[in-house]
User: Fold these one by one.
Assistant:
Number 1:
Amino acid sequence: MKLRRVLIILIVLVLISSAFFSSSLARFTDEFAGSDTALIAKWNFGARGEDDTAGEFYNKGFTFDLFNAESVEPMDFGVKSFTFTGGGSDVAILYDVQMNADDLLWLTEGTVAKTVRTAVYAPFVFKIIAEINDGAVDTAPPVFSPPDYDSGWFRPVDITTDEDGYFSIFDHTNGEPFFSPGSMDSVTVTVYWQWNTSCYINDTGTAFVSPDTSTEISETYLPYYQAAYDEYYGPGGLEDRREAAADAVSDYLDEHGSPASDGTWEHDVDCELSDEEHNSEYESLDPEAKEDYLLEHGGTDDGTGGITWSAHSVLCSADHFREYNDLVDEEHDAIDACETSLMAAYDDYDTLAADALAAKESVKVIFRIKGDQIAPEQNM
Ligand SMILES: [Zn+2]
Ligand SMILES: [Zn+2]
C-alpha cells in the first residue's frame, strides 16, 4: 500500500491577552496530503489544555491561554500546561512541539539608564518541562537544553529558530520522540513564564546584575527587583545619598552666602578664637602688625598690660568656590548614580517594552504540536 503521510498541525496562538492585548485564540488545522478516502488507519492524535475537561482530548482545538487572559505587567509570572496523546492511533506517531516567540523579539529601541539601546525585547523568560503519564509504554521526550541561565529558564532571543521563528522544545540528539502504535500514552508539557528584566538588563551595557528567576516574595517585589529597589530606596541608598548631597549644597549656601556680582565670595563670621589663642597670636607679632591685629580682633589694652578681646567678626577663611564646586560635583554624581542605577534600568526597560507591546495589535506566543504518521514498515 502506498504510504500515506498524515500531518496534523495544532497551532496554539497564545495571545498575550490583557489591557495591552486582545483576547486569546486557539486554532487547529488538519493538513492531509492526498485524498481523505485513502486514510484507512485510525488516527486519534489529540490535545487538551489544563483548563479543558479532564480526560477529554480534542482534535479540533483546545484551550491553552498561557497568560490567563489577564493583563500582563512587569514582574508577572505564571505556569500553564497542555497534554497531547496518540490516543491509541493504529500507527506510530512522531511528534514535536515547536514554540514561536518572535513577537517578543526586537520590540523597540530607546534609552535605558541613560544609554541608548537599539534592541529592547519583551523581557519574558520561559522554562519548559515535559512529562509522560505514569505507566507509559513510551518514554518521555527530553526537553532541549537552553543556553545560559541554569535551571532551564531561557530567553527566546537566545534560541536558534527556523526562518519562520519556530524551534523545537525537544532535544532531538537521540532521535525523534514518538508514540508507538496503539499507545494511549500522553505527554504533558508545562510552560513556566516570567516577565523578568534581570535576564535582559545585562544586554543594555548599563547596570549589571546576575539574573534571578526566583519568585518567592518576602517583601513587596520579586527578589530581582527588590534588590534594586532596596539599593535605591533603602537606608543609606541612592535616594538618601542624592538628597543628602542636595541638602549639603543648600546648607553651604545658607552658611556662606553666595558670590557677589563682581565675582568675589566673601562674608564675615564670628571669630572663634579663644582669649588665649588671641593672646598667643598677638604676642607673636611685631609691633606694627599688633596694631592691625587689635583692630581686626576687637582687642583693647586694659591698662594693666593685658588685652581684652570683645566679640567680633572676621572674614570667612573658607575657599568658597572650591568647596561649593566639590559639593555640586558630589550632587551630580549622586544624581547620576540614581539615573544609571539598576532600578532605573529596570524601570526604563520595562516602560519601553510595555509601551511597545501595548502599541501592537496582537502579541502571539505560538506552541505548535505536530504529529506525523510513521510508515508501518518503519521499525520503532
Ligand atoms: Zn564662608
Ligand atoms: Zn578674633
Number 2:
Amino acid sequence: MQKRSGSSSAVAAVYAIHLQSGLPLNLYRKSLLSQLLNLTVLLLVSFLLPLSTLPSKSLFIANLTPKSQYRKAAHYNITHCRRQNFYALPAAHWQRLAQPPISYLETLDLVDDAIDRNSSIAREIFLASLSAVGLDEHPPDPSPDGQKHRLDWRGAATPQDMDKANTTIRQLYRDWSAEGAAERQACYSPILASLLSEFSSHPDKSPIKVLVPGAGLGRLVFEICRAGFTAEGNEISYHQLLASSFILNHTARAQQFPLHPFALNFSNHVSRADQLRRVMVPDVHPGGALQDASVGLAVHAFERIGMSTGDFSVIYNDDQHARAYDAVATVFFIDTAPNLLTYIETIHHCLKPGGIWINLGPLLWHFEGSGPPTTTTTTTTTTTTTAAESPPSSSEPPNPNLGISSPGSIELTHQEIIPLIASSGFSIAPATQPPPFRETGYIQDPASMLQNTYRVVHWVARKESGSASGKAQEKEKRETE
Ligand SMILES: C[S@@+](CC[C@H](N)C(=O)[O-])C[C@H]1O[C@@H](n2cnc3c(N)ncnc32)[C@H](O)[C@@H]1O
Ligand SMILES: *[C@@H]1O[C@H](CO)[C@@H](O)[C@H](O)[C@H]1NC(C)=O
Ligand SMILES: *[C@@H]1O[C@H](CO)[C@@H](O)[C@H](O)[C@H]1NC(C)=O
Ligand SMILES: *[C@@H]1O[C@H](CO)[C@@H](O)[C@H](O)[C@H]1NC(C)=O
Ligand SMILES: *[C@@H]1O[C@H](CO)[C@@H](O)[C@H](O)[C@H]1NC(C)=O
Ligand SMILES: CC(=O)N[C@H]1CO[C@H](CO)[C@@H](O)[C@@H]1O
C-alpha cells in the first residue's frame, strides 16, 4: 500500500472523480487509482459501450439531474395534488377539516417545509457531484437558435432517475442516521462480528482486505475500515456512489443535515408527528471518526478505504483481482443477481484460498418477473435474444463477460443455494431446517402501522484451500463429469 505524503493525507479519504471520456471514476484513495484505471478499460468495454456514441458527459447529466429536480417533483406530486383533492371535498367538510385539531392545510404546509429541508441535502449532493465532474451549477444558456447547450443538465432526469434519487435519500436513513442504528445492528454487526472472530489473531488488521459488493451508501465499508481492516466497496449505481462520496468525503460534521424520511407517504401513520419525524445525518462524522480510529495504527484509515464503480461480476472477474481478498461481505446483495452462479464464481475468483465469504440478507430476487436489465448504454451489445424454452443445441461461442447484463435469470431458494455454494469450491455448513433467521426491516419506519420484516439468513462460506479459481474449477468439474 502506498504511503501518502504531507498534509494531503489528512483528507486522503477522497473520491477523486475522473473524467475519462465521460466516465466518472470514483475513489476514496489515490493508491487505488492505478488499479482502477485498469478497471476503467473493462468498464468501458463491458458496461458503458458504446461510449463513442455518447455525447460527452451525457452520462453524468442523466445521473445528476434528479437531485435538483427532486424538490419540484415532490412538491407537485405530494402536496399540490392533495390540496386540490382537499378543496374538492364538500365545502362544509374541508372547512371542518381545516380547523383544529386536524388543521389539514397546516400539515400540508409542514410537509412542504419538510420537502424543502430534504432537498437541502439532495441539493448539496447534487452540487458536490456537479463540481466533481466539472459541470457548472448555472448551466450555459441555450444558443441563440434555441439549441440546448450540451453541458446544460437541466431537465435531463427521467422518472426512473427521480425514483432512484428518492430511494437514495431514503437509504441515508438506514446507513447514516442515529435512528437507523437498529437496522445496522441487525445487518452490519453480524458481518463485523464474523470478521473480528475470523481475524482475531491479527493485531494489525490493515493487511486484511475486505471487499463489499453492492456497498450502497458505504456504511458497512466505513465500519469495516474503522475496525482496522482495509475495506473496498463496489457499487453499480451512480446515485448511490455520489451520495456515499458526499457523506464520506464532503460532510463537515455529525448531524449536519435534517431529513424527513417518512413525510412523503401519508399512509399508516399513528400521528402527524410520526409522519413528519426528522432525523439528522450523518450520525457520525466519517472523516473525524476515521481520523480517531487511526491513532496508533500503522496504516491510516484514509489509506484503507476505497470504492469502485461498476458491475461486481464484471470488475472482479479479471486476473488482477484473482485471489486478492481475504474476505467478501455481502449484505442484501446476492438477490440482485439474475444469475447467482456468476456472483458465486466471481466471489470464488477474487477470494484468497482459505478466505471467507460472509453473507446476510433475504432472497428478494430483484429481477423476478422482469428478466435481466439491459443497461441504457450497452444498446448494441445487450438487445436480448428471443427466449427459447429449450436449451440451445449447439455449443455456445465464448461470450464477453456482460455481468448482470447477460441473458437469462433464475430465482433460487435458500436450501438450493447452500449446496450450490458447497459444490462451487467453498466449505459451508449444511442448510438447517429452519435456517437461523434474524428479523430486520429495510428502511422500515419503526412507528408505522405496517411493518415489513425480513427474516434474513447469515452464513459464512470458506474458499477451500488449494481450490482453483472459479472458472478453472468449473472447467475441471465439467471435464471430470
Ligand atoms: C439492496 S441494496 C443493499 C445495499 C447495502 N448493502 C445495504 O445493505 O444497505 C443492493 C445494492 O447493490 C447494488 N448492486 C446491484 N447489482 C450490483 C452489481 N452487479 N454490482 C455492484 N453493485 C450492485 C445496488 O445498486 C444496490 O445499491
Ligand atoms: C419517494 O418515495 C416515497 C415512498 O416510496 C413516495 O411516496 C414518493 O412519492 C416518492 N417521491 C418522489 C418525489 O418520487
Ligand atoms: C408525478 O405525478 C405524475 C402524474 O401522476 C407522474 O407522471 C410523475 O412520474 C410523478 N413524478 C414523480 C417524481 O413521482
Ligand atoms: C425525504 O426523502 C425521502 C426519500 O425520498 C422520502 O421518503 C421522504 O418522504 C422525504 N420527505 C420529504 C418531506 O420530502
Ligand atoms: C405508502 O406506504 C405504504 C406502507 O405503509 C405503502 O403500502 C404504499 O405503497 C406507500 N405509498 C406510496 C405512494 O408510496
Ligand atoms: C470534507 C472533506 O474531507 N473534504 C475533502 C474531500 O476530498 C477533497 C479532495 O482531496 C479534499 O480537498 C476535501 O477536503
